[in-house]
Structure formats: C-alpha cells, structure tokens
Amino acid sequence: MASARLRQAFAITGVLGLALSATACGTGSSSNDGGSSNAGSAECAPYENYQGHEGKKVTIYSSIREIEAERLAESWKQFEDCTGIDIDHTGNAEFEAQLPVRVDGGNAPDLAFIPQPGLLQRFAEQGQIKAASAETKAMAEANYPADWLKYSTVNGTFYAAPLGSNVKSFVWYSPAMFQEKGWSVPTTWDDLIKLSDTIADSGIKPWCAGIESGDATGWPATDWIEDLMLRTQTPEVYDQWTTHQIPFNDPRVAEAVDRAGTILKNEKYVNGGFGGVRSIATTAFQDGGLPITQGKCALHRQASFYANQWPEGTKVAEDGDVFAFYFPAIDPAKGKPVLGGGEFVTAFADRPEVQAVQTYLASGEHANSRAKIGDWVSANNKLDLANVANPIDKLSVELLQDDSTVFRFDGSDLMPAAVGAGTFWKGMVEWINGGNTANVLQGIESSWK
C-alpha cells in the first residue's frame, strides 16, 4: 500500500525527540519575512550551490499533512533562509486523486512528492513532467541505490529522486516475551517456521494479523504476497510480475501465495487474540498486532510505520515492550530482499529555482536535517545513522543502506490502480475467507487489461 494512503489513514504521532531548531543564516532575515538572505555566512556554506534565486517561490504538493508537514517545513527552513527561496508546501488527503486533476487542468504545482511510480510514469509518458536537471541526476546517483532510481526513470530519462521511505519487511514481537520463553529471533525462513511451531506447541497462537481497512481492505495481505514473491523468486521475476510480463496466475505467483498461506491460512498459527483464519479479514490493520502486548500472540508482520499503532506509552525498542526483526529470507545466500515504499520529488516546471529545490531535496544535507527532527526514514546513503533517534527508523535505515539489500517497491503501487488497489485487494479478502489460490489469481489476471 502506498505511503500516501497510509498518511490518509492516520497522522504520524511520534514524539519530536531531537527537535532541530531552524536558525536563520547569519543576521539577515529570510525572503519569507521580506528581508534578504545572508548567503555568505558560515551557516549557509552548505547551500552555496543553490544561490541566485532570492525572492523566488517554489510550490510543492503532496499527501503529507499535519505534524509530518510541519516537520518537513522545519527541515528546509535553513535552506530557505540561506537561499531566499520560499518553499510553499500544501498537503492534501486527496492528493492521489487531485494531482492528476490539477495537472490536466493546467494548475500543476512546481514539485510533487509522488508515492506511486505508476503515476509518475503516466505523467512522463504524457509529457507532463520535466526531466531532472543534470545536477539533480548527479546528486541522486551519488546518494541513492540503483534499485530506487529505476522507479523514476522512464524510457531512459531520469525524472525524480526519492525522498522519504518506509520498510515493510518486518516482523513485530515482544522482546520481554521472547526472553521469558527462551525464544531467539529467527534469521532464516526455516528458523521462523520452527519458532512458529514452538510457540504454537506452547499453547499460544504464534501469529496475529488484520487486513480490514475500510475501502482499502485487503492491502496488508498484498504486502505478504509481495514479500513472499521476493523470497521465493528472483528480483527479475518480481519485476516481470508487477509489469504483467508474466500473468498474475503464473505458477511462480501461486507458489508465493501458497507460501504465505502456510502462515496466514494455518489455523494452528492464527489469529492470536481474535479467532480463526477468517477473523483476519474483519480485524482492522491498526489492531492486528496489539495482542502481542497482551501475550495473546507473538508475531505480527507489518511495516515500519506500524510503530505508530502501539498503545500510548508502549516502548518501541530492542529492550522495550515491542520491537521488530527483519522478515527472514528463504535463501540468505541470495541477499536480503526488502519490500518498501516512498515518495519521489517530481517536477512539473523547470525554472532554475525549482531545479535548485529538487536537487537540494536529494542531498545528504536535507536527509540529515529531516532525520534530526525525528520519525524519518530515507534510502539516502548520506544519511548519518547518528541522526536517526527512533530505534525502528534506525533499523530501517540500516537495512536500506546494507549493500546486500535487494530493494523492491510495493508491488500493488506499481500495478494499474484497478488491479493493485482493486482486484488484488479484493482477491486477498476472498483468499483469506477460503478462496482457492488458482481461482483467486485467475480472477485478478482477468481484470488486468
């Protein structure tokens, strides 16, 4: 599921932690206050390459709102003060629906944070977005893995650098429960299944899950399938699946679905704290992992952003009430497959000041500025882990920066919306409720036009 849809579901509520006070450069006031920037001050040295645009405005449109939007504004405040560029950001809960309307109506923003590579590709193919400048491209290539950059490259043209990220390949657990029971965090798929059997034999349902999410019901199950596609198949096969170069009912897809079913459709394993297998379809995704805090289940596969769903006062840390471990690979020798998502800074205008902002947002300076404020994950390899205070964010960044990581974007966000956010979601509900794998996959395949 796209990070944009998740932001529409709930606002990030983490504590600010290491709040970064955005100080003005030198004694000069920013152009936002009607004054002039002091570009020559020591504080402004990192922004030397972005000068010459004082008094210019750059508009940004995204799904990012409330606390998260305030943190973004804080993260680029010094850039504004030092360059004199006024960044005007607007967040909208209906971003994904409204951005195409604005663009088609001739009212496009200068920049947009697009979380769906398929949407970015549509704009590129219709000639509605601008190719990234040479400076932005060079900055992105220096700071991001090729696995990320391919999602904003269309027909050989590079359009956008990544911004924020999330990691979905996590299993949540209770460190205290594991210590009390003598369980160890598994590092292979076989160890994960052995642990699940051990927990089940102890009288506790090892897994709990929930895929109910209003109109988006089913999306958490699609993440399971995507993670298992990355673990049972090669990255190349995953790419062929998300682009329909192989059919949705290909035997290799069925293999991944059935592998997920060894956990999700196993009455011995699920659904701790809620009921049997079918209770997964009626359990809200926000509630899916909560039985861990009640000792009613031990494991919950969900993304890094689930850290915000635990009850108030829950300590999320390796020595805390809950934490997460990497969802193990089936064959560790093939590297670490990681499923995730994120936004891409896409330009609808190519004025010099717009290009300057787009380049800056791909820089290590911005990644670290935003990280210091708290609750931030990025695949930017210039991000210093020392600036990432939140333990689950730190774990996410470590995975993204690991040379053995093989990253792939959320599959449903790469597919046409009618499939990825339509029949795929609905098919997973049918599957959980007893649907036959072959029939469910045939139904999804038939919907892909």
Automatic annotation (TrEMBL):
Signal peptide: 1-24
SUPFAM superfamilies the record matches: Periplasmic binding protein-like II (SSF53850)
Keyword annotations from UniProtKB, A to Z: Signal, Transport
UniProt xrefs under InterPro entries: Bact_solute-bd_prot1, SBP
PANTHER family associated with the record: ARABINOSE-BINDING PROTEIN-RELATED, OSMOPROTECTIVE COMPOUNDS-BINDING PROTEIN GGTB
Annotated family: Belongs to the bacterial solute-binding protein 1 family.
Protein name according to UniProt: Carbohydrate ABC transporter substrate-binding protein
Classification lineage: Bacteria, Bacillati, Actinomycetota, Actinomycetes, Micromonosporales
